[in-house]
């Protein structure tokens, strides 16, 4: 399968074909991706959900700082684990020589992932807003605040939301890798044509 992936990865294709091939690879191999990444995704989602819930309930201002840290750690862990696609080895100048396709594929994939991310984060956002409103109410003299079980409910919702979003983030990598492979193939063909013309 590695040889098939490498051959299909490095070939000339349009931006639309790169996005379609990337999504097809992800959806066709989701079970395999899930089996190879769940050991990292689940503890990460639990820790992320608990910390985000505690931040939203007790320190709402620190949520943005934690989200940035979460993204950096996630990228570091998943870069080492996901080996379904071979490495596309090319110098940076190759990608800078053909930036259009990579930018288009990255933008289209980002928009699709952002839509899915927003859809899965709706319950967490609703609970976050409810917790912030309750904290604001307590500051203004509301004696009730939120019920005692709200912290556990918020942790559970944030954990499930984080787990779903972790797999949504993985969707982004596959089409971009196909665009990189297409760029490498286009550059190799251009170099061979330049050698033939000399």
Q: Low-confidence segments, ≥5 residues, pLDDT <50?
A: none
Proportion of strand residues: under 5%
List the helices and strands in order. HHHHHHH
Please state the structural category: mainly alpha
Radius of gyration: 22 Å
Helix content: over 70%
Would you tell me the overall average pLDDT?
76
Main beta-sheet annotation: none
**Amino-to-carboxy terminus distance:** 38 Å
- Helix count equals 7
How would you explain this protein's 3D organization?
This protein is mainly alpha-helical and 198 residues long. 83% of the residues lie in helices and 0% in strands. The chain is built from 7 helices and no strands. The protein has helices spanning 2-9, 15-28, 30-58, 63-81, 92-97, 99-139, 150-197. Helix 3 (30-58) crosses helix 7. The longest helix has 48 residues, at 150-197. The model has no long low-confidence stretch (mean pLDDT 76).
In short:
The chain has 198 residues and is mostly helical. The chain contains seven helices and no strands.
Describe the structure using short key phrases.
0% strand, mainly alpha, 198 residues
Per-chain topology:
Layout: H1 2-9, H2 15-28, H3 30-58, H4 63-81, H5 92-97, H6 99-139, H7 150-197
